[in-house]
């Protein structure tokens, strides 16, 4: 899941963090490739090190453990998702923002390993001590900010009813997205996430849209 | 052994003895990029060659005479039809005759070892027997019209990464049973007049110096009496290559032989008899192609590349090779009156008709898939929806979008200036790209300027820029930008896969674009880019979803571009480029019926396969692409293709994957089990097997028996089958042999085709070839016959229809 770069909450990075940027980038790329082919559980830090061209201790210097590497991978993935959603242009607002979530879910459905990773890591990362905890908080904050602005914009242009419960709609929608993905991971062929999400969005349109839709 | 009475041996000997050493050596290098030296004293004409094998391009890489653009090699091979290959050979010969070209450089008969190989689109198959038989039909037909073929690349050139330096490490059995086999079959069945030696090394020796392979196997053991030429710029050393059996160094005029061979002979490193043998082979070739001792005549009245005759041929060949991979509920063929159709995807309008690299052809036209479907189904019932971006490297602007600022004609203006800024020459060209060659009209230019007025219906935000390496300045009203585009490394780095640079600029209708570039050190292709500003994938997919939800059928057109299907570079993933998988998944979730057309030659991953109703694998279909797709989709022509290579489900699967050499060496460690052979050995489950293809009929196989044996070799299998479908169809009966020793992989040993109407049945006799039923014994350096085992009749090994034991009692 993702949100436009303008809505991202950037954390300050130390000099030390910046120093190893090149090696990190290479390691992340290697991890993405390995996770994509072999999945998260079957991939070892040692394999990532070999593909990166680093010693295991060299890799561990940049990423203290596999989970840290994973959260870096998720950030990278998030940047790619932003490109997919916004393509460097302004974020869609109004109902178009919600329509673009359909495209995003369609994309995820073709990458089951990535959904599996997201479901697993987002559950683990609810613990405040988890290395990916801040990533998860940023993720939800950015997503909510964007979708809330999208609905508020829709209220201004008249495509969203003024009495729409903006925050609740946004939290519900994120819950639907995450919940669909969790069920899909548990039973991969039991349903089509894109079709299910469209049902949810049609309900939103019917309840809170105006005849000025699109 | 065949005796060619046409070859004037006495005249050749006389000519050889009349020439001095220097003259002889000069003849053994190219005169230019694609031609050889003539010699009036012996009556030798200049021999002209052209790249092949998807069309006879002539000497210019871009902007030359329009030529027939054929379907790509895998699409042709997917017909599994020798007659189609012969038709292709004949067509290419006629195209060559029309351009007074003596030799067409092809076919490419390296194997699909790893699906990541960049040049898969140009090679026939992962199977050596299928490759050899199809290539032999092509070569025979081409040469029957007096045009020489050049099977390539000899040897073990299965991938492109570090191709000029990589040392391919291949055990002797794999060389014999896999990589040499297509060359052996072509040599025995079609007697090619030339063979091309590859860039790479084989087991420590570079291919142009490989005495064991060229002198040993090809010339001595097989009796090849033709000429061995180098791949372009492949020859590294003079004496070593001349002694190994290389006969001709390409291209010229400046070659390692020209510089050093005479000295090597004078120093005694190369015998004059060796030189004489090379010249004798050159003159034999010249006699065969009609360049010695008297010049040939060239037929007139050859069909134009855009004639009705050619259009029918190219449409039919492409459509017959297209392969139905999935067709749930008989969604295909789409019949007129099928309701509304949403045609979705960039490849519908930006249809990729050919791969990239030296095989590139300038076609008279390319019918896009959108155009083809609109004319077949009616514009009223078709809605066109653009999809997601598919390219990171942009292409030259279509000529229809630009006007020459001076003449107002379609195309661009090219002006060459000298160092003082004086205009040297100004030309109109019909397309928006051109080649800057050492011997071309722009060779002396200090600065080259390309200019055009853009034909836009209304002001729009567009990407404006150029393709091709060099230093550039691009200017249009309100925008000036200077930048450098770097070439690729290696031979033809400026020619193939030219990189682009473009920026988004607001353009008025009729805006003028001027791009200037300075001198550049190597041959290059340059051109103008004008294309729509990109939008996000999510926005494109949202639009597609709306259209798909409202239509009776969604046809999603996806595929690769020349960034994936190209000479000079291997792929890193088989995933479709860009966000095309997301596009298909989104459309499939909402559409009543989803048909996917895959416009690609290499295997692609299909993570959405379970969610769509039908998939047509359409290859890179050549100039009639859209009409061929429409004919296949509507059933006007049955897409009766069978896959020529196995499709993995995920990246990394299959017996051979990574084409990246380690420390300069690429180990063919999977041995003799590439492609389906390895999948079968590992009992693995690919997405689609080699040989898979549904067509539009259904087939019931009844009795099958091995009816002819020769020692332990199966020579014939007989099988009765019935078309139990509702449409006329063509079936390809495939016979495989599973050896008794599990160390030896399964292999195709024969196939036969039959066309039957609904309810009709026939008994088909499949002739089986002894050549794939041999095992090479490296110790004794000879072949053994495979003993025993099982005969399997299958529609691809995922759909076995009969298994027959090979009677061990008949072992000899």
Automatic annotation (TrEMBL), chain A:
Keywords: DNA-binding, Repressor, Transcription, Transcription regulation. Signal peptide: none annotated. The keyword Cell inner membrane does not apply. Residues 44-63 bind DNA. GO terms for molecular function: DNA binding. The keyword Iron does not apply. Residues 21-81 form the HTH tetR-type domain. InterPro entries: BetI_C, Homeodomain-like_sf, HTH_TetR, Tet_transcr_reg_TetR-rel_C_sf. It comes from the Bacteria. This is TetR/AcrR family transcriptional regulator. It comes from Arthrobacter terricola.
Automatic annotation (TrEMBL), chain B:
Keywords: Carbohydrate metabolism, Glycosidase, Hydrolase. Gene3D superfamilies: Galactose-binding domain-like, Glycoside hydrolase family 3 C-terminal domain, Glycoside hydrolase, family 3, N-terminal domain, Immunoglobulins. It comes from the Bacteria. InterPro entries: Cellulose_deg_GH3, Fn3-like, GH, Glyco_hydro_3_AS, Glyco_hydro_3_C, Glyco_hydro_3_C_sf, Glyco_hydro_3_N, Glyco_hydro_3_N_sf. The keyword Nucleotidyltransferase does not apply. Signal peptide: none annotated. It holds the Pfam family Fn3-like. One of its GO terms (biological process) is carbohydrate metabolic process. One of its GO terms (molecular function) is hydrolase activity, hydrolyzing O-glycosyl compounds. Residues 731-797 form the Fibronectin type III-like domain. Belongs to the glycosyl hydrolase 3 family. This is Glycoside hydrolase family 3 protein. It comes from Arthrobacter terricola. The lineage of its organism: Bacteria, Bacillati, Actinomycetota, Actinomycetes, Micrococcales.
